[in-house]
Amino acid sequence: MPHPFQFALFVAVPLALAGALVGAARVSAVSGGYAYIQRIALPPASGRIGLPEVRGPLGAGRPLVVLDAGHGGHDPGAGKEPLAEKTLTLQLAQALRDELLKGGGIRVAMTRDDDRFLLLPERSGIARRLNADLFLSIHADSVENNEGAHGASVYTLSERGGNEAAALLAARENRADTINGISLAGTSDAVSAILVDLSQREAQAKSEEFARLILREATGRMPLHDQHVQSAAFVVLKSPDMPSVLFESGYVSNPGEAAKLASPEGRATFAQATARAIRLYFARQSHP
Q1: Residue 237 sits in a domain of what CATH number?
Q2: For position 144, what pLDDT does the model report?
Q3: Strand order in the sheet with 244-251
Q4: Counted domains in the chain
Q5: Integer Rg of the chain from CA
């Protein structure tokens, strides 16, 4: 074991050299040299963001839905302010949260409730850490050179994206994670892969059921771009044990549709239709 004095030198010398370099750079910058210093705020050492507030009725027995407003912070998404995608999705998520809380019986959390940036894995990671029963990511579509494009679309994870997610999860977690409350610790690679695959199949079936309910409740209330559930390998949907859906609420590249979605009436229509789909989904889960 190193002597405490040796350990102190091991730590102090590099720090002293770093301090000298910073001091030299500052002197160079002051004297008109080329050095430039920029301070960068680093994330917490833990590398893990805090969990958001869970609102609604007390008791873990009540279903929990996590709402994810797409983009945020330095990532505006599609469109431009005052109707950039990040702003519109946050408004829609907040309206949906309020509608769910007003009806009672469902707990709600939001991955972001302000203009902040989150990595894609962090968004679904928040929901998994909260043991959410449902994850809904809200976005607004965009297409170049076609301002007439309009209507909402609903996506679940594609089969290819799901298979990749299952393989990555089993490898990354090294059998130290839990799937649907079942610990993978001590299981073989083959058993872990089977458990992940079974869990993912169940989550995918529930995701598709929820997606169909969104389309059903939105029909006649909101314009739809696609009448059927779509699938794509969205990173934010790659949770192996949690039903997850991405809702493209409309086209932010269509000024008329974006303005309508952002209006009080548009937000209310979106919130009411989606909240009804969420309630129907949970009702079916409790009474299969």
Answers
A1: 3.40.630.40
A2: 82
A3: 107-110, 64-69, 134-141, 244-251, 153-157, 230-232
A4: 1
A5: 23
Copy the structure tokens of residue 103.
């009806």
The string of pLDDT tens digits covering residues 126-155 is 999 999 999 999 999 888 877 789 999 999
Whole-angstrom Cα distance, residue 66 to residue 4? 49
Q: Is residue 163's pLDDT more than 60? A: no
Q: Which amino acid is at 164?
A: E
Domain for residue 146, yes or no? Answer: yes
In-domain check, residue 48: no
Please report which residue ranges of 104-218 form alpha helices under DSSP H: 120-129, 159-173, 189-218
Q: What is the reported pTM?
A: 0.74
What domain range is 216 assigned to? Answer: 64-286
Q: How many other C-beta atoms can be found within 10 angstroms of the C-beta atom of residue 136? A: 24
Of the candidates 96, 221, 214, the one whose C-alpha atom is nearest the C-alpha of residue 155 is 214
Q: Which two tokens stand for residue 65?
A: 């839905």
Q: Both tokens of residue 67?
A: 């709402």
Tens of pLDDT, residue by residue over 56-112, are 998 888 999 999 999 999 999 998 888 899 999 999 999 999 999 999 999 999 999
Instruction: Let me know if residue 58 belongs to a domain.
Output: no
Tell me the C-alpha to C-alpha distance, in Å, between residue 238 and each of 63, 95, 142, 215, 248.
21, 25, 23, 21, 17
pLDDT in tens, 178-194: 444 545 455 555 555 55
Interatomic CA distance for residues 270 and 211, integer angstroms: 14
Other CB atoms within 10 Å distance of the CB of residue 226: 13
Classify residue 202: in a domain, yes or no.
Answer: yes
Query: 58 Cβ partners below 8 Å, 6+ apart?
Result: none
Strands 134-141 and 107-110, how do they pair?
unpaired
- Please say if the pLDDT value at position 46 is more than 90: no
